[in-house]
Amino acid sequence: MRRRGPRAAAPVWIIKTCPRGGAGSNEVRMKINAKDLAAGLVLLAFAVAGLWLNLDHTLGTARRMGPGYMPMLAFGLLLFISLIVLGMALFNGPDPLERWAWRELFLILAAICVFGLILEKAGLIVSLVVTIAISSFADRTHRPLGVLGLAAFLVALCWLVFIYWLDIRIPVWPTYFGP
Amino acid sequence: METLFTNLALGFSVAFSFENLIFALLGAFIGTAIGVLPGIGPVATISLLLPITFGMSPTTAIIMLAGIYYGAQYGGSTTAILLNLPGEVSSVVTVIEGYKMARNGRAGAALCTAALGSFFAGSVATVVVAASGPLLTSVALSFGPADYFSLMFLGLIISAVLAQGSIVKGIGMVVLGVGLGLVGTDVQTGQQRFTFGVPELSDGVGFVAIAMGMFGIAEIILNLERPESRNVLTNKVGSLYLTREEFRRAVPSVLRGTVLGTVLGILPGGGASLSAFGSYMVERKVSKNRHLFGTGAIEGVAGPEAANNAAAQSSFIPLLTLGIPANAVMALMVGALIIQGIQPGPRMVEAQPDLFWGLICSMWVGNLMLLVINLPMIGMWVKLLEVPYRHLYPAIMVFCAIGIYSINNNVFDVYLMVLFGLFGYLCSKLKLEGAPLLIGFVLGPMMEEHLRRAMLLSRGDVMVFIERPISASMLAIAAIALLAMLLPGLRSGKEKAMAEGG
């Protein structure tokens, strides 16, 4: 994730071995799979965290399993698997890490977080417009008028589906300034 | 035989009730729409619409959700043929021959083959579901806890083996899913596990939040970072009628695709896309006109399209008879049923005959509707392709956000969904599959319960899993499946099939 652009290639170590007799050298390439390495680390982190948190739970016996027995089995197995993934990652590459679309990622997730933050105070309609406005920056081909039309359409659609038809308990208008 | 007819009569009376007809139509309609649109698939759509179904009766809800799944198989072919772009993962191989046919001016014929082939395959698979359902159920009722545990274990292994990409990573995601499923209150002791003292987590991690985050939100970001290249190259659909020659060539492929799809759909981890790949490989090897492949051979459309639809139906078999989801869509169905208060499993046929038979009959009705929705109205769906993704993603996002909030009227779920959106994006960047995680998450708590019961009954003796013949054979199959994938020959074969498909 740190590397960017064309430099993102996985590290390839070239170990030169000289066979006995010395007639020429073979190149043995050790290819590291950066994606698998990272994936293995993610799984390993989950396994270690799970096993560590599981220390709080009584294990019980195989016959009478306590709340910690199944988590121990599951996260123990995950630990084992993550180590296999890590081990295999040393040989089955190269598979470099990809660039992240940080801008799109941030805008979309932020838009939804803002929706959660203001929904209960500002009501459905205002929250929808704000959320759509934030998310529209994630696609550079959006035009202001188009976003406005889209917001109007989606507000109408969501009102129809969630308020009129499903009647969910959700404030429609801002309650903050209300009585 | 007689009971089958009375059951089917019951099913049709349920399926033909006004409400169920309307929602089957709605499901088929939505399914076709999202099938046509690239960038949103059935998994995202079904998780998106889960909150909306909570107010319905369970039967109606499942009928609609099922309609979305098999409707998407119809719609996906339209995009594949007209746009040289798969509308769904399951129509990836349809692109190869279908688009060539469209370039040859036979787009209408390709669409017609896809729709008729799908209808035929769907009808056959529906009959298979109806016939095998009660049979498998009666077998499953004799299962003890140990057998169930082994069956679920087998299901998880096979779903990881057949999933795309690395098997070890697939198994890792399954196990991680099982671990996530354990979060919450322990059923037997009432102890809180992995909740960090957060009261919202005491009922477990929200199933809908995981599904929406990993398949809805993460997909949006992934689609946004790819530049959109969508231009309808074939505006003229042409005649929908097949020539006699084309019809003659398509029939055997449809038959082969139907059989293959029905069988592969039942397997865990199988489902629509695997069947379509499989059928394409078979057609290229055995069809009489295999030398025409690559130039727009109708066999390459007829076989895979029949197969993916057959598989979409038959993957309901393990769900309805054993309560085990065969793929991510079926995991969502389990979630929908559990939220409705129905525990999927062999007792469902007797406890919920309306749901079981109603769903089966509605599948056939839905396939008939899809034929009408797709063929005469094809022009409308082509128009839908002109909707750009920038108008689509805010709608998906907003529906996810309101839907997840409405489940518990709690913003915590909204943030949880965001978290899983981030995790889903991370996973896809590291080629970790989301589907095995979802299946593991659904099966995890059930496995724990069966494991506890089995070990209690055997007084802590692990040998019970090997001594019981059913359990032992399940474990043996799981071991064989794992070992087979370690063989380099088979593995490279699978990788080759996947690579050619993608």
From TrEMBL, chain B:
Keywords from the UniProt entry: Membrane, Transmembrane, Transmembrane helix
Designated name of the protein: Tripartite tricarboxylate transporter permease
InterPro entries: DUF112_TM
Tree of life domain: Bacteria
Organism: Falsiroseomonas tokyonensis
Residues annotated as domain DUF112: 21-438
Residue ranges of the TM segments: 20-41, 48-72, 108-131, 151-183, 204-224, 259-282, 319-343, 355-379, 391-408, 414-444, 465-487
Record Pfam families: TctA
